[in-house]
């Protein structure tokens, strides 16, 4: 039964008068009568007993009232849902993020989105380091990703949600731990623990810049899977690491100290990134929330 026919059937069933039902539907009576006849032909059964003075439901007609009402109500719910999706009031957003090092940013985004747009569902996917996170975003596996990139592809837009500082992570008993700020020459001969690099990866680019400034080649002894593992290796005395202030703030360690660089390697931005050509109303709401963040 089509929704339009169900609506017409219910109007006649509730009014038990074709004239009043036609007025209720804002149509003439003859087209309504033809619509009901077509429905009866379609179902192969009479829905109404008609006489010159009265209209009554048949047994089949009475049995179809509730199913018809449910069909019309379901159609109305679908229409309302579609309008809410178009307004960005409901929907799903698949958000990737680098890991524990951006927990504070992701938590704040999630909290504010749920408070301002309770109908949106945010599906979080962690452990998305710079290059793999960007690959998943560009492939369509993610709708947006929070991370740090020095270079973004041309098809990606972004918004800065936080500023960070580059730091060197050292074991607490390391001789350089007593130095307030480290120069390139201080760390030139040190063993380095790094994260996986790749196109646009901030830490790889900044370590190379530090090495160029100090005219040394980094002696890389370990490549850690993520920032937490990187700090564990630093804690174990395997080497030192270039990292972010967000790592210090979000990942607890017992005997690792963090020291700034004496000469800055430039600001580090935490960004929310998304595909420019693939915007949805729900994603637009997330971007609005991100743009309302105070930068620190």
Descriptive account of the structure:
This protein has eleven helices and twelve strands. With 296 residues, the chain is of the alpha/beta class. The protein has three domains: 3-86, Arc Repressor Mutant, subunit A, CATH 1.10.10.10; 91-162 and 269-291, D-Maltodextrin-Binding Protein, domain 2, CATH 3.40.190; 164-267, Periplasmic binding protein-like II (D-Maltodextrin-Binding Protein, domain 2, 3-Layer(aba) Sandwich), CATH 3.40.190.10. Helix 1 packs across helix 2, helix 1 packs across helix 4 (59-86) and helix 5 crosses helix 11 (281-291). The protein is rod-shaped, with a radius of gyration of 32 Å. Residues 1-58 form the HTH lysR-type domain. GO terms for molecular function: DNA binding; DNA-binding transcription factor activity.
Any descriptors?
WH_DNA-bd_sf; single chain; three-stranded antiparallel beta sheet; D-Maltodextrin-Binding Protein, domain 2; transcription; alpha/beta; 44% helix; transcription regulation; 296 residues; 11 helices; WH-like_DNA-bd_sf
Give the SSE order as H and E letters. HHHEEHEHEHEEEHEHEHEHEEH
Instruction: Outline the low-pLDDT stretches.
Output: none
Briefly note the CATH topology name of the largest domain: D-Maltodextrin-Binding Protein, domain 2
Biggest pleated sheet: 5 strands, mixed
Could you say which overall geometry the principal axes of the C-alpha atoms support? rod-shaped
| Total count of strands | 12
Number of domains: 3
Q: Report strand order across the widest sheet.
A: 4-3-5-12-6
- The CA-CA distance between the termini, in Å, is 59 Å
Write out the CATH superfamily name of the largest domain: Periplasmic binding protein-like II
Helix fraction bin: 40-55%
Structural class: alpha/beta
Number of helices: 11
CATH class term of the largest domain: Alpha Beta
CATH architecture of the largest domain: 3-Layer(aba) Sandwich
State which percent range the strand residues make up.
Answer: 15-25%
Mean pLDDT: 89
Rg measurement, Å? 32 Å
